[in-house]
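Sequence in, structure out. Go.
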Amino acid sequence: MIVYGGDWNPEQWSEETWAEDVALMREAGVNRVSVGIFSWAFLEPEEGRFDFGLLDKVMDLLHANGVQACLATPTAAPPPWFGHTYPEALPVDADGRRLYHGSRQGFCPSSPIYKERALRIAEQVARRYRDHPALAMWHIHNEYGCHNARCHCDASAAAFRVWLRGRYGTLDALNDAWGTAFWSQRYSDWEQILPPRATPTFTNPGQQLDFRRFSSDALLDLFRAERDLLAGITPGVPATTNLMAGMHWEMDYWSFAPEVDPVATDHYLIGEDPHIHLAFSADFARSLSGGRPWLLMEHSTSGVNWQGYNRAKRPGEMLRNSVQHLARGADAIMFFQWRASRAGAEKWHSGMVPHTGTDTKIWREVTALGALLKDLAEVEGSTVTADAAVLLDYASVWAEDHPAQPTADHDPVEVIRQWYGALWKAGVTCDVAHPEGDLSAYKLLVVPALYLISDRGAANIERFAAAGGTVLVGPYSGIVDEHDRVRLGGYPGAFRDLLGVTVEEFFPLAAGESVTLAGGGAGTVWSELARATTAKVLDVHTSGEPAWTRNAWGDGTAHYLTTLPDGDLLGRVVAEVCADAGVGTTSHPGVELVRRAHPDGRSYLFAINHTEAGATVPATGVTLPGGLPVDGALTVPAGEVRVVREAPPA
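Output:
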């Protein structure tokens, strides 16, 4: 079955409402809900006194109504007694301010007191419900690092020093990696090292980067501790946590992904081109899962509460969003939350049951989606294959986040999304890959913004190209090593030989400034004083400088852009690079086509029309649901989705 449901928070409602809730769950086709995520204050109302009366009733009620429980450890929201009793366990920001209880995630990830109390409540929950028939999966914590990714307190400082000793071994090695000869920063004792707290001017880039790495690892260690505890009490029950792939950049999800089974993620629409943003996040989640199906643990039925402008979803948009995730590999479609809250900070966050009840657009779409997912049950377990991958490394994003850069306008996350969007518009299904990962399955690697890269990662990309692959690299990539030290001898550093280009100097462009290319189109944000060494120049700035080059490397090719191209130019580049790589493109603007397939050869074409006009796309098979024959052409009405069980090849 395709899992369908959302976060249920019955502690916010009376028991009379619970009965209505489970009846509505049956009506909507809900088969699983997440419970207990923010229930610590109910389960342990006073330190050391546990009360499971409420959760006992909830678990029993779910089982009686045929709904599975994704049971949470409630450790993401310590109760007020915790912060009141242990203020030293609360997080501290870079300015030295202690952040108090009154919201959620009010704890320091390196606090031994927090870890001890979190494991205690997790153990109590696990032993209580280890044999409960409703228990289907553990939901550990919630959105690690969403609000407390980095703590700068003394406990964090001590833990940071331990982490650094493990990474570098000696102070000499650390001083070399951080370049502490600059500004008289050389350390002579481990105790001198602090988190990057507020300083008169720029902090040390190596220190900042390693603190980001350490902070991610500290939260991962907390996850592992809870997971291992649960595995010892409930062996065989899967355990996961909800990542925020493509949305949250404080945690290194490449490190988290191997530790969870299955991979689960949350996604909310933000910014322009929301369907492209969604597709990127879904493809990223699938990639973190190694291509296996994954779980969408949260998205919204309509508006959210935390953006500056929280728009409601238009009719049909919620169903399209959900099917997009399904098409790109999700085997679970879940929401935050089941019933919209009456009070609290998220009372204006939409739910499956809205404030205005069931005679609403939202409820009608919730029940329609439940029926559709039931009809698509045979898709479960099928996978998505991609010929192209976009390379992404959190360490590179973190390193470029240091403020002392040639320009503040080169945002690596936005560049990655824009280049992914050009591939999406060309109909290319992409994975997201780590530079040091296995790249052998792909024909094309796109490297939009990889400022930092290790020697190992650079060699991996070179091997890919030498074996016949095609690489497209964007400007300001390959510039520094894994310690954020400049690679000398000419930019683009690690990629200079691969690309056959040497860059002498960067010329960032001011807001509103652009460079025009002879072949058409323009570049913004960035330009370079470059010369081709072994590469062929495909296009130039009107000043005559290379703007787009192509270099032979072994049996493959490597393209380079010395500026950030506008939409038309980027589309032209992507089309040519895909042709070089033998990656097929399509010409159905605004219509998303994605294929899932089983190992036995059964395959499913998902067609999602994001436009306001009907479209016809090539397909052969039968529709799901309905079983209507499709012979070569499929009509997809405006704003709707169609799924075709494809005819097997002759």
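Check: The chain has 17 helices and 28 strands. Residues 205-233 form the longest helix (29 residues).
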